[in-house]
Design brief:
One of its GO terms (molecular function) is phosphorelay sensor kinase activity. The chain is α+β, with helices and mostly antiparallel strands and 405 residues long. It contains eleven helices and five strands.
Length: 405
């Protein structure tokens, strides 16, 4: 349990109300308090030679009433009090034993006024008080020290308040700036995560639907001549649909969790170890001969890069099934010390005439975006022996891992 001042609990509500109260209401209360202190000598006079009059009380009130505007016009208020205070002292009815109004305006000036106003007023009050005391009868030396030290203390307290207020404002500004940066980072991360999920959904649906369309087109052709093959085609359609539904449920489940718990979440993504299964499924479902070839010593890839590599190969094979009308495709992984090169080549019809880069379809754009997001690059276009080729270079980590089986 943390130690706490015994006065902190009773004073906390009062301080909270003062912070939220109207400035004019607080300043009016301060002025009333100073006026009461000034009036004490008039209300309870002592026996002496100094006459106590209404004129003297009005001069004393002149040192208190202007304090109502001390925050709205600090320098003008200080000037008014600076005139009324020596006038009260000269009138001597009652004499200002303590300059209550002067202490308040010096504090206010030190806390709120401009530098030149603070310096001029402090110097004027020090000189004025010294001159006033010197004309006082039977003035004791300690009175000089007491009055001058009181002025300096009031000014120093205001300066401390100004410094603390500036420090607090700087901390609040820094906190707001950090909050804006945090909100921007969160929004940026959320947008990136949603874009990644959108790409994953596109890859899953495009891949599954392509395989289902190929099998659905082949089914009616062989349903009478080769019922077993037709049954296998329908099984392949069902398998592709179930796999797509499973992955979509996982994605949608994460999106629902994001709504309950804000903040981007990462989906468990397939990596390069899942490539043999992907190649096998595409070959079996689409009737396409697909080979996976690995050269070099495989190295470790960051998880995001592994997922991107899997999705790139998946999208490239989906394009082969949908557009290439190919009979064979080769997936190559060429490992080097600083990265891996993915190559997907087919023997289909190749790019359209005049489209040497492979076009700008959503699938090819997604391949380039995934490669760029991992610090790599992608090149798409016609293969050296015809057909279509996708070449993607991805950076690899320095840690080595076992080769793909």
């Amino acid at each position: 349990m943390s130690a706490r001042s015994p006065l902190s609990s009773p004073l906390a509500p009062v301080l909270a109300r003062l912070r939220t109260a109207s400035p004019y209401a607080v300043d009016a209360a301060v002025a009333a308090l100073v006026l009461f202190a000034v009036s004490l000598q008039w209300l309870f006079p002592d026996e002496g030679d100094d006459p106590l009059s209404w004129r003297g009380w009005l001069l004393g009130a002149g040192t208190a009433v202007p304090l109502v505007w001390r925050r709205a016009a600090p320098f003008a208020t200080a000037c008014a009090v600076s005139v009324a205070t020596p006038a009260q002292a000269v009138h001597h009815a009652p004499p200002p034993d303590l300059m209550y109004g002067g202490f308040v305006v010096l504090y206010t000036l030190a806390a709120l006024a401009r530098p030149w106003q603070r310096r001029v007023m402090l110097a004027g009050w020090l000189a004025g008080v010294a001159a006033t005391i010197s004309h006082k009868e039977d003035a004791e030396p300690f009175e000089y020290a007491f009055q001058l030290l009181s002025i300096v203390c009031a000014y120093a307290l205001g300066s401390l308040t100004r410094t603390q207020r500036a420090y607090t404002a700087e901390l609040e500004d820094r906190a707001r700036h950090l909050e804006r940066e945090r909100a921007a980072d969160t929004a940026r991360a959320t947008a990136q995560e949603r874009a990644r999920i959108a790409r994953d959904m596109h890859d899953i649906l495009a891949h599954a639907v392509s395989l289902m369309v190929v099998q659905a087109e082949a089914g009616p052709v062989v349903v009478r001549s080769d019922p077993a093959r037709a049954e296998a085609a329908f099984d392949a359609i069902a398998t592709a649909g179930r796999d797509a539904m499973t992955q979509l449920r996982r994605i949608l489940g994460v999106l629902k969790e994001e709504e309950r718990e804000p903040g981007p979440r990462r989906l468990p993504q397939p990596g390069l170890t899942a490539l043999p299964g992907l190649v096998r499924r595409v070959g079996e479902s689409a009737g396409l001969r697909v080979e996976l070839r690995t050269t070099g010593e495989p190295g470790a890839l960051p998880p995001d890069t592994e997922a991107a590599a899997y999705r790139i190969v998946q999208e490239a094979l989906t394009n082969t099934v949908k557009h290439a009308y190919a009979s064979c495709a080769v997936v190559g992984l060429d490992w080097a010390e600083d990265g891996v090169t993915l190559t997907v080549t087919d023997d289909g019809r190749g790019p359209a005439p005049g489209d040497g880069t492979g076009g700008g379809g959503h699938g090819l754009i997604g391949i380039r975006e995934r490669a760029a997001a991992c610090g790599g690059e992608a090149v798409t276009g016609g293969g050296p022996d015809g057909g279509f080729r996708v070449v993607v270079r991805l950076p690899a980590a320095a840690v080595r891992r076992t080769a793909l089986g």
